[in-house]
Design goal:
The protein is an alpha/beta fold. The protein folds into two domains: 3-179, Glucose Oxidase, domain 1 (3-Layer(bba) Sandwich), CATH 3.50.30; 184-215. It has seven helices and twelve strands. The strands form three sheets. Strands 1, 2, 3, 4, 6, 8, 11 and 12 form an eight-stranded mixed sheet that branches. The chain has a two-stranded parallel sheet with strand order 5-7. The chain has a two-stranded antiparallel sheet with strand order 9-10. A hairpin with a 2-residue loop joins strand 11 (165-169) and strand 12 (172-176). Helix 2 packs across helix 6. The longest helix is centred in the last third of the chain and has 25 residues, at 181-205. It is elongated and about 70 Å long.
């Protein structure tokens, strides 16, 4: 699925709306841990996942650092979101200003990690969306190595496969499996219409119960 088609299907869709649609499909465990949040309030994610996996480095003074990361980043496409799985490591910042600059030049759609980032002040001022658990000054060299890319990864209790759709905002990140993306978009459209009718009914009557009974959303 291309980024333009994703933009059309999920334009303005929040992580909460996507989660509601997935609940309807009985996919009830598709949101990342609540501490994975945007670096800046304006940062939002929408795009297919490109997955990397890092592990603790075996060599603290590597002669040729970053080799796994460099190999992986040669394969990311311009419409994808880099998903950097670390096992919730606090060892180092796995994302920073320089890798962001390279990704912006390639029109990568954003970055997401269950680990930490650095260069936060510069990155928060920019438009490139980044989601993480927090920040730390440490570099990944000799601390974390990328050992795989292009395979499914698990962040917390959620498995993310290459091509799955990520929707992120201030509420968090919802992972939409690629095979149900079209159905989720349809369900979201119906939920939006019901919510619009609910708002109008609630504004007219002032009754939450009446609006819920009429439209079944809350």
């Amino acid at each position: 699925m291309t980024q333009p088609s994703l933009r059309r299907m999920f334009s303005g869709v929040s992580s909460a709306l996507a989660a509601d649609a997935l609940d309807h499909l009985d996919l009830r465990n598709q949101c990342l841990d609540p501490d994975v949040m945007p670096l800046a309030p304006s940062h939002t994610l929408l795009g297919p996942a490109f997955c990397l996996r890092a592990e603790p480095a075996r060599d603290t003074r590597p002669a040729m650092p970053y080799q796994g990361l460099l190999r992986a980043m040669e394969h990311v496409r311009g419409d994808e979101i880099v998903v950097f799985a670390t096992g919730r490591s606090d060892a180092a910042g796995v994302w920073g200003e320089l890798i962001t600059a390279a990704c912006q030049a390639r029109r990568v759609a954003g970055a997401l990690t269950d680990g930490l980032i650095r260069d936060a002040a510069q990155l928060a001022r920019g438009p490139f969306p980044i989601f993480s658990r927090g920040t730390v000054p440490y570099d990944s060299k000799g601390r974390l190595d990328v050992v795989a890319h292009g395979d499914p990864v698990t962040l917390g209790s959620v498995t993310i496969r290459p091509g799955d759709v990520l929707i992120g905002d201030l509420d968090g990140v919802t992972v939409v499996p690629a095979e149900v993306a079209g159905r989720v978009a349809e369900l979201v459209a119906g939920k939006r219409a019901a919510e619009d009718a609910f708002r109008a009914a609630a504004a007219e009557s002032g009754s939450l119960t009446d609006a819920f009974q009429r439209y079944g959303v809350l």
